[in-house]
From TrEMBL:
The lineage of its organism: Eukaryota, Fungi, Fungi incertae sedis, Zoopagomycota, Kickxellomycotina. Its EC number is 6.3.3.2. It catalyses: (6S)-5-formyl-5,6,7,8-tetrahydrofolate + ATP = (6R)-5,10-methenyltetrahydrofolate + ADP + phosphate. This is 5-formyltetrahydrofolate cyclo-ligase. Pfam families: 5-FTHF_cyc-lig.
Amino acid sequence: MATTLKQAKQQLRQLIQQRLLQYGQEQLQTESQQVISQLVQQPAYQKAQHISIYINMEKGELQTNMLIKDAWMNGKTVYVPRCTGKNDMQMVRLEGQEDLDSLPRNKWGIPEPAADRAHVDPLLLDFIVMPGVAFDSKGNRCGHGRGYYDRYLAKATNAFTCAVCLSEQVIKHVPADEHDQKPNIIIAPLGILYES
C-alpha cells in the first residue's frame, strides 16, 4: 500500500511539474498576486505577529516576495525555512530586504539562511505559509516528497497554516495518508479551495 501511494505521489509530482514549466513570468505574477491579495484579507493573517513564509523557486512556484513585503509593512516578524541535513526544517528570522537579498542559495537554488544563524522555537509562530505541488478541495496536499512541512507542522502547533497554489496545481484528488498534515486553509487564484 505504502509503495503504491509513494508511486502515485511521484507520478503526480512529475505531471504537475511539467504543467508548471509552461507558466510564463506574467501568468506566474498575476496568479501569485491573486492569491496574495486574498491571503492578506484573512483574519488569521491580520492578527498574526510571527509569520513563516517560504521563499519561492524561480520557476513553477507561487511567488512570495510581495507577501514578505506586506508582512514587513504591517509590522510583522518574518521567518523563512532552512532545511538541515537531518531531513529537518527550521525557521530563521529575516531582518529585512537587505538580509533577504544577501541569503546564500541552497542546493535547489533557493535563498536560505546560513547554518550558523539561530532558529526559533516552532511554538513562537502563529501563521505559516506553505508551498506544495498539488492540492484538492478536501484539504489534501502533495509536497515535494521530503516531508519537511509535515514534520515541522507537528511541532508548530500554535500556528494557523495556509497553503498557497497556482491554478495548475489544483486537481480533483490528491493521494494522502495519515502522515500528511492538512493546512487550515488552501488559497488558489480563483478563491479559497479548502477551509477547515
